[in-house]
Amino acid sequence: MEYDEDLASNPFLKFFQENFTILYEEAVKNQWILCIPLANTVCHDQLDEFYIRQHIIMQVGEESRTLTNELVEISEDRLRVGSISVRILFQETIYTKLGRIKAFCINKEDPKISNIKSPTILQKKSIRDSIRTVKTALTHYLKADQNFAMPEKLNDCLVEVKNYISSLDRRISSCVVCNLYTQLMDLITIQASKADANLNKIRKNNYNTTLEDLNLPEQFQPSLAIALPELEKLPDQKLVADKLDCLRKSVTLLTKTDVPADLDADNLLALFSYLILKSQVTNWTAQLEFIKLFHTSSLLGEDGYLISTLEAVLDHLKQGSFDNMHSFPKVVPEMPLLRAASLGNTEALTELLYSSKFECHPLCSCRSCGLPRVVDALGSDSKGWTALHYATYYGHSDATQVLLRTHFRDQVQIADPQGRTALHWAAYRGFQTCLLLLCHQPGCDLNCRDCQGNTALHLAVLNGHEPCVKALLYYSEQAHFRLDYDAVNCNGDTAMHLAARWGYTNIVQLLLQWEVDCRIFNKHKQTAADVAQNVKISQLISKFSDTEEKRNLRERLGSSRFWTGLTRQLSLKRRPIQSS
């Protein structure tokens, strides 16, 4: 026998028996086949329930399938699952107290699953040399362009690294990429920062999209709930193969639904769009570029399909497919004034608010005039929204102006159940004109917080609305209003935290001009530089913080009290000791 191994001590089998007892008993009872990877190819980071189920074969009619429902072709010495082919080293029957079970010891020759943790001595030397070569290229670039100001140099650097890595043996190249993952991903994220910032703005502005908006049945909700955590693991993976495995698992989990129809291409695109919208990953474009840049094998087959799917989803989002989704109300309010405000119908608003046919007053509801009650100006619907909420949410500046000419100007601080005023919604949706109209009202509080502790500045920054951020900053300066730039929400995040996390470089630079405090820690003990989406933003903030600290020190040094105290301390230290 060419290969021999004691399967009883195999780490895969031991992990299976110790952590998934019920599943193991079921496998023995049903006489399923275990596919046990060779001991020195088992990566403990991969061991989870999904990975275990991928390695169990059951008979379904005349077909053999894994417990993840993948078709398996079994020949004398080979197993083929999709585009992956593995070698059967030997077959063995494992006897336990529960009974016996058939097992294949397999060697995963596919480069995606090759063992990169136990290379030979020659491979170790090659890996060290390759890492040194790539590090030299990265260091040379960083010295040449310390401020990341020249995109063409960054692109040339990445192309050089990509060409070098692609010339290496796949196993060695995987080790190089794994060891230098942080540096490589940092540079790719900077290169894709503008595209990711635009994508993040689209995602945040459409975060409340529902399955109904995407014309998908609610039966998909359970599948999406388990697929989302799997997809969000993708940025934590250092190897392209592992990132693709996250995509593969997500697609598999999406099929676990009670919807009778098959998961066709249109449904898959919509479902993945939904997952990307709801995820907290801030650099999807960079993740895709990393996969495409360092994918060492042909793009044909399942890997090519997964990459194309992710690319299609991101393009679908970037093309503004959701731009008009929330532009008009899906359900028009019944109350006449709310209906007119939500549709921006200024004529109807004027008629309702100023009509001369009312004998007593424009909003008559008394019996003396003999007319039915038309509207209650301060009334709200089941959402707790007034006419002013509707007008500003849908960006109807003319309608907002009509309302603010009446006693609505004294009601701008009315909040909905989320604690959001009309100003909050104008900032959240990015309607600068509506926001400025509200700011000019005497009773408008720019520092008002919603139930999550967000101010209007928080919401404008979160959704990437640079014009609204400028409007709030400039208005507060011109009106001599103390806007709290450093306000923290319930997560302890300032507006700078949000701008840095979602990669809004222009907003970060704008806030730095207003000298916000970048040293504030959120509830996770992180500053804005700590949560920055890319190194360039982190560097901008850190430089500003250093400058701010130096300025504070200069102010302290310029203080006469400071000098007096310092002089006294020095004189005490230098005073000679009296002999007894």
Automatic annotation (TrEMBL):
PANTHER family per record: ANKYRIN REPEAT DOMAIN-CONTAINING PROTEIN 27
A GO CC term assigned to this protein in UniProt: transport vesicle
Protein name: Ankyrin repeat domain-containing protein 27-like
Biological processes, Gene Ontology terms: early endosome to late endosome transport
UniProt KW Flavoprotein keyword: no
GO molecular function: guanyl-nucleotide exchange factor activity; SNARE binding
Residues annotated as domain VPS9: 193-326
InterPro entries: Ankyrin_rpt, Ankyrin_rpt-contain_sf, UPF0507/Ank_repeat_27, VPS9, VPS9_dom_sf
Species per Swiss-Prot/TrEMBL record: Daphnia sinensis
A Pfam short name: VPS9
UniProt entry keywords in alphabetical sequence: ANK repeat
Gene3D superfamilies in the cross-refs: Ankyrin repeat-containing domain (1.25.40.20), VPS9 domain (1.20.1050.80)
Repeat positions for ANK: 383-405, 418-451, 452-473, 491-523
